[in-house]
Amino acid sequence: MPNVGKPSKGCKNCRDRKVKCDMKRPSCSQCIRVQKICHGYRDELSMMFKNESDFVVTKAQKRYEQLAKQRGQEPTRKSRPATWEIPPDSASDSSGSSTPTTQTVFRSGSPAPSSILTRPMTPPIEDQALGFFFANYKIEPSIVPRGQFEFLAELLKRNDTERILQSSVNAASLASLANNTKSPLVMKRAREEYGAALAMTNRALKSRNTAVKDSTLISVIMLGMYENFVYEGKDSLQAWAKHVNGACALIALRGTELFQSNIGMRVFQQFYGTILLVATQTNSAIPEAVAQLWEKATSAGDYRVQGRQWTIRLVRFMHNAVQLNQDKSSDPVTMVTRAIQLDHELDSIKALIPKVWQYETVYLEQPAEYVYGNSYHIYLDPWIVQMWNNLRSIRLRLHKVLCDQLRKGLEQDPPLFPLQETQRQFQASEQATTKSAADICASTPQLTGQVAFPDLPRRPPPKPSPTSSSPSTSASAPAPASPPPPPPRLFDPQQPKFKLHSPGTFINPSRPTGMHHLIFPLYAVGQYEPVPPGLTQWAIDRLHFLAFAIGTRQPLVLAEELKQILNSESVSEVSEGGGLSSLKA
C-alpha cells in the first residue's frame, strides 16, 4: 500500500473548481457563496494509501510466467495455482467427524488467488452505523437506574432477532452515520432500510398477535428516530409526532401487559419522556390511556428508588403544563392565576431533589470560549442533567404563557390587571427566565465533552452487625444519638478533568453524555425574551456542534429558525428596549 502523496481534503465543489476550501462546518464558505450544496470533506489519512493488492498479484503472475518460460514450461497465466490434494483418508480430523474432507494446500512459490489477498478489512456499513448510534445514544444506568436504548443491545444479540427490528434499527443508525459523514450513499442505504422497515411495520400492525410484540413497538420508536435524523422542518416534526402517536396506540393496546416484561417496562419508561417532549413541542394532548398507564407504572418497577418522589411530581407537573399550553378558551385572569400557581409548585418540586443529585458550580475568572456566562456546572450523571434541564425548560415555557396572558389582559378596556402589579410580575418573570436560561447554558459544557463526568466510587459492602450474644454488646450501654454526618463529596471539582477543555474532549463511546437531550433546551434558550446580547448566536453555534457530533439534522433546522428570530425586527425591538423592559416603571 504505497504512499501516494498528500491529496486535497477539500469538498468536491472546491476540488472541481480548483479553489481553496476552508472546510468550515456545516458548509464551506465557497459553497455558501455560490449557493451550492457542500457534500463534506475527505479524510486525508485514508487517501494517502492505495490498495495495490490486485497490482501485486498481476505482477507476481507475470514473474511466474517468465520463470516458467526459462524452465521450458508452457505459461498458463490464467490457470489455477499449483496445489496438492490431500485424500480424505489421510487428512487429520481433530473434531472427530466422519464426513470426508479434502484440503487444498498451495505449493510454495505459486501465486495465491487474488480473492484471498483482497478480503475486506472493515466491518459492514450497518455495523459501523450501529456502533455510531450506540456511541451517542445508548446510556447504561449508573447512579440513577435509568438508561437510554440499552435494551437494543440485548435484543440484537439474540439469535431470534426479527427482521422488522433489525431494519428499523439499521434505518435510524445509517441515517445518523450519513449525517455525520455527509455520505449520500449511506443515506441512500438508510432510506432503503426505512422503506423495508415501514412496510414490515404496517404488515405487523394488521394483526393483534404481531402488533403487541416488543419488536413492533420498538420498530415504531426507531422509525420516529429516523424522522428526527432526517429532520427538514415542521413537516418532519409532524412525521415524528405521527410515529409517536402510533407507538402510543400500541402501548394503549397492550395495557399493563407491557409491564410484565423487563424490556417492556424499560421501553415505556424511556419513551414516556419522548411523549411529553412531543406534546410540549406540538401543543398536543397526552393520550389519556397512556397517561393512566404511567400512573400505574409509578407503583411498579424501579420507580421506588432515590428521587422517585421528585420524578413523579415533575412528570405530573408537566402534564399540567401541557394542559395549560393547550387551553385556548380561558380568560387571561384564569390563565395568569393558574400559571402563577404552577410556578410556585415548581419551587416546591425543586426542593424535593435528592442531595446527591445536586450539581457543583465552577466560576470562571475570565470569559472562556464556547461557554456563555461566567460559570459552568458539573453533574454526576447525564440523566440528572436531563431532569434539571426539563425543569428549566418548563419554567421558560410557563413564564412565556404568563407574560403573553398579562399582555393580553392589559390590552382589554379597561385593563384586567393593575399596572403596578403587572410590572412587578414582569420583573419576576424576567428574573426567573434569565436564571433558567443561564443554568441551561451552564450545563452545556459537560454535555458537549468540555468537562468530564465524575467516576463514581463503588459502594462499600455493608458491615456485619454485631450479634446479640457478643459480650461487649450486652455489657455496653446504648450510645447517645448523634446527628448524621453531612454527605461526603463524591468528587473534587478542582481536579484537572473538571477544568474546561475543547468541545468533544471527553466524549467517550462507551459512556455517551446524552447530547441529544440538549437540543430543545438550547432551542428554548435561543428564543426566550428578553434575550441577552449574543445568547441566540451562541445557542445556534452549539446546535450546529450537536448536529454533526451525534448525526441528526434536527438541531440544524432549529438553528435556522433561531437565525430568523435573530434577524427579525421583533428581536431588534426587544434589544432596543421593547418587550418586557418597556413595561417597567
TrEMBL record:
Residues 87-102, 466-479 have a biased composition (Low complexity). Residues 66-121, 450-504 are annotated as: Disordered. Residues 103-117 have a biased composition (Polar residues). Residues 10-38 form the Zn(2)-C6 fungal-type domain. It comes from the Eukaryota. GO terms for molecular function: DNA-binding transcription factor activity, RNA polymerase II-specific; zinc ion binding. It holds the Pfam family Fungal_trans_2. Keywords: Nucleus. PANTHER family: TRANSCRIPTION FACTOR DBAG-RELATED, ZN(II)2CYS6 TRANSCRIPTION FACTOR (EUROFUNG)-RELATED-RELATED. This is Zn(2)-C6 fungal-type domain-containing protein. It comes from Lentithecium fluviatile CBS 122367.
